[in-house]
Amino acid sequence: MSPSFRLGLFLMTTLSLLAACVFLVGREQLKFGSNYRVRSEFDSVSGLNDGADVRVGGIREGTVQSIVLPNRPDGKVTVSMDLSKETQAIVRQDSVASIQSAGLLGDKYVDISFGSVDAGKLKGGEKIASEPPLDVADLFHKANQLLDTGQGVLENIMGATDNLNLITGKINTGHGTIGKLINDSTLYQQASASVTSLHDDADAMKSNFLLRGFFKDRGYANPAEVKEHAVAQLPAQSPTKSFQYDPTKLFDKPDSAKLKNSKSLNVVGQYLQSEKFGLVVITASTGRTGDSVKERVLSEARGFVVRKYLVENYSLDDTRMKTRGLGKSPTAKEAGSIEILVYASAPAVPAKTSAKK
Q1: Are 352 and 230 in contact (CB under 8 A)?
Q2: pLDDT tens digit string along 72-83?
Q3: Can you tell me the distance from the alpha carbon of 155 to that of 177, in angstroms, rounded to the nearest whole number?
Q4: 230 has which bridge partners?
Q5: Confidence of residue 357 (pLDDT cuts 50, 70, 90)
Q6: Going edge to edge, which strands form the sheet with 77-84?
């Protein structure tokens, strides 16, 4: 192989490599016609430089070609960008350019959002909308303003605390109406007695009102009839027989006294009709939660309807059939219980007194 041939081969190889490198670099820089240009205007480019990345959907698809200052003080900075033609399918006329930062203090780049399907395509040279860049200095300034405002609020709270301490001190020394009420035991006793009396009256009125409404809605007797056969406590002796029922299976709703499974009480009626007994007490409880007055009313109503069913459907001495509404009980089951206690003799038990009217 002659020296001339080898020299020519070397030059051709070198030129080929150089051309390939120029092509690759040019392609990377979006040269050789594989790009189109768009521009956008900003009030401030906030540290953006020529050659910065342009990203579409977070992917680098172009570069910043030039940044031009405005000709007038009220103008905007124009940023020209070259984008890959592959982005023309997603970058549209309603796309928005914004200057972002790679990290809190990183390099600046331009991010272009996707356009809408109905918007027109970009052919090159168009201007797209922009968003003002986020300035870290502005963030620090706003944070300082918030801190100043918080300091003012704290000072106001401290002032209010001092005033509250002054008022509390006067109350403790007996100054003013509140101070006299707190420090004078006579006034306290009179006020306490009045509140207790008012509470008793209100409770009696509330109970009577709830009973009346409860039975009116369900078509049962009035409250006086419910309490007619109620007893205040159980006999001291132990019952000879007892029947227990789950209220959820016996009544139609958790807050109702309407029977839905009355046939389950037939075993009690048949037993009482065939056996001699001295006294029967139907006790009812409603669980551990709820309003005390309403739960007591519900338990009394349930005992009443169970007694009424047994008396009306079986030949029983109704004077020996009593009820006892326990209401809410800390030891009761979650849904309460219905228990029918049968006593061999007829022990004396105190009747339940009706509420004040």
Answers
A1: yes
A2: 999 999 999 999
A3: 30
A4: 323
A5: very low
A6: 35-42, 77-84, 59-68, 53-56, 108-112, 96-101, 129-131
Query: 143: which DSSP letter?
Result: H
Beta bridge partners, 340, equal: 243, 282
Q: Please state the separation of Cα 279 from the chain's center in Å.
A: 53
Using the predicted structure, report yes or no on whether residue 199 has a pLDDT greater than 70: no
Please, which residues bridge with residue 241 across strands? 342
**Secondary structure class of 334 (helix, strand, coil):** coil
> How far is 346 from 278, CA to CA, in rounded Å?
4
For tokens 């979650």, the residue is 334
How many CA within 13 A on the CB side of residue 13?
6
Contact 248, 286 (CB under 8 A): no
195-199's contacts with Cβ under 8 Å and 24+ in sequence apart are none
How long is the chain?
A: 357
Beta-strand pair 321-327/279-285? parallel
| Residue given tokens 């958790």 in the structure block | 254
Q: With a threshold of 0.85, does the pTM exceed it?
A: no
Percent of the chain with pLDDT over 70: 73
Amino acid (1-letter code) at residue 42: F
10, two tokens? 């070397």
Q: Which two tokens stand for residue 355?
A: 């509420």
Interior angle at CA 135, CA 129 and CA 137, nearest 5: 160
CA 125 – CA 237 distance, rounded (Å): 104
What is the separation, in whole angstroms, between the first and last Cα of the chain? 131
Q: What is the pLDDT of residues 30-55, one digit of tens each?
A: 455 589 999 999 998 878 999 999 99
